[in-house]
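Final report, Chapter 2: Outcomes

The project's central promise was a pipeline that accepts a single protein chain and returns its three-dimensional structure in a standardized token representation, suitable for archiving and comparison. That pipeline is now operational. To close this chapter, we reproduce one record exactly as it appears in the project archive, with the input sequence first and the structure output second.
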Amino acid sequence: MSGRLEDSALFARVVELGSLRAAALEAGVEPSSISRRMTALETRLGAKLLDRSGARTRPTEAGQRYHAAMRGLMGQIEAVESEISGETLRPSGRLRVAASIDFGQAHVAPWLLDFAREHPEVTPELLLDSRSVDLVRDDIDVAVRVARPPDSALMARKLADVPRALFAAPSWLEKNPIETVADLAHKTQVFFHPEHRLRPLEITDPDGKLHRLPRGPGVSINAIASIVEAVKAGFGLTAGPLWSFHSALEAGEVVQVLPDHTLPVPPLMALWRPAVVQPAVIRAFVTHIAARAREVPGLTR
């Protein structure tokens, strides 16, 4: 590895360990040596990469971008070297996965732990966030998202379809009977985001006609598990993913409203960054979760 790449790799360790001293201890050199090399790197790039003013050494905004880019580059170098040495078939190393909070807790976390159990040389990390993460900025290896494939340079594999439907508690439907599409207009709903109140409810009838209906008032909760509880408690109907209401449906705590009608069906996607040689851990994990997604009640192929 050239001197420049060595300095970049050393910078990455400073960021990950949180201090020059820790990086020096790991490398077996004096902290002053690490400090000089980091100063030389900043001088060469013409940008301040590290904030050394506090108890911990933290990357600046430029340092965060540089760290994410270099982590990806180092991963590709390691993958190429592994391929040359014949090690590409054995998943190993760090695997940083991102997913939404609800689906991630219910499914992605168990998938990742099972994968790590099968491959003890893998170090798993799971980032759960309701927002879509930036794979480069957040240094993500694989993101699992319920969304249309992005128009980007990311690699993507469809894992399953995520059917959605209308759900409500039996007690709520007794007071708010719904027999036709027209009955849905202005009904109280439970929303995932306040902005959803402003969007029309799109639903297709058995004849294939698309209806766009004005939504009514209602509470907004950005967690699907809590939305299920609110619907069960009679706070209104909701348009939600079938997988999240599967247990409540079986228990009779909610019912599907207008079950012969359909809502738009988004895909469940695995996304990862392209690379000259894809690390074995990413290839193996995507294959693993594609198989596991078939087992989730409420998802379809």
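Archive annotation: The chain has nine helices and twelve strands.
This record, like all others produced under the grant, will remain available to the consortium after the project formally closes.
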